[in-house]
Amino acid sequence: MKQPLILADNTTVLAGISVQHENTQLGRLGLARDTTPVQLDPSRTGDDASRLEDGLHRLVVGQDESIRQIVSVYQTYLAGMNAPGRPIGSFLFLGPSGTGKTRVIEAMAETLLHDSSAVVKIDCAEFQHSHEIAKLLGSPPGYLGHRETHAALSQEALDEHQTEETPISLVLFDEIEKGSDALWNLLLGILDKGVLTLGDNRKVDFSQCLIFMTSNLGAAEMEALTSPGVGFAASAGSTDTKALRECIQRVGTQAARKRFSPEFINRIDRTVVFHTLGAPELRRVLDLELSRVQRLVLSGTPFLFELTDAARDLVLEKGTDQKYGARHLKRSIDRLLVQPMANLVASRQIRSGDRIDVGRSDDGLKFQRIDEGLSPHQIHRAAGILFPMDEPLLDDYRPSGSSLEKEQSAQESLPR
Length: 416
Known about the structure:
CATH topology of the largest domain: Rossmann fold
Number of strands: 13
Number of helices: 16
CATH class of the largest domain: Alpha Beta
Shape: globular
Distance between the termini: 53 Å
CATH architecture of the largest domain: 3-Layer(aba) Sandwich
Largest sheet: 5 strands, parallel
Radius of gyration: 28 Å
Number of domains: 3
């Protein structure tokens, strides 16, 4: 290793880099040390934030930018460098319906708090008139029904889902554009000072909260841009995806600025535009939804169902609608798969322990029983779902035979 060269003017030369000590605070105090500079990488993510990022990518499809923004704010909080006296972070999610704006928040609750419903959700459509704000704050003393009215944004409501491991709260103002001006003015104080005063003069602390606001502002213009053969997408095509995304970002941001006052926009930390899901993203959403349905089945009459590739293609064909996004796909799954299987269970054509093959027919999906008598443990393992009180699953295990003996043989070969 080369020794540092100390010049007469108290300059240290290291690997071609001159470090002047005497003009620095360390140099004046005599604390400067001749060490080789180490290049730091501010883009790296810590372990806790990486776990959140992995969980969000596992549960949310096609919205990498929103995940990156959330993880960035969360890592700042973990480092203790978020602004004191304010919420941990505030987000405005814009984009068409069915792109995953609410799903991202539920996925964050599931990853951090182990419960997708651990969110304080305020439906802003219920607060279109100023007097309805009393439901959030509670009635002041002396008003009729004061003791019977409970504030929706009380400290108890915020702290309900906090854990010792993760002492934060997630607050969602859904469809914020439908709220009244009184609701927006109420949010000004929360976003700026992190404090809310209830009707009985109690203070509510929002400094341990992540605040999310969702809106469909600009959705029609965004859909026009991404529709085949229309507008920007017609000229740019698939060769300039980055330019198209930047254009959609501008459209969403401008729509928000037209609707909300400048002081409201200035108090929001991050504005994120969600983009329409394409065919590859919808196929991944289909996998997640089929896993959800299988878990739902296991909570009732436990049986195993498997879709052929042709059946999956049919569900995607019937469930793809750019205007409604992933929500239309969920309705397609309910109509083509869940409801027919529910009829088969109710009529006792499907029994506990059955293995059902779902294929494609001329008028929809067809269902065949190809095995029976499987134990709940075998069904859980075949579906890739952890059995209660069981060890972690082997990712490469999938049933390959059609008989119960082959299933049991594969089961016995698994380590206990």
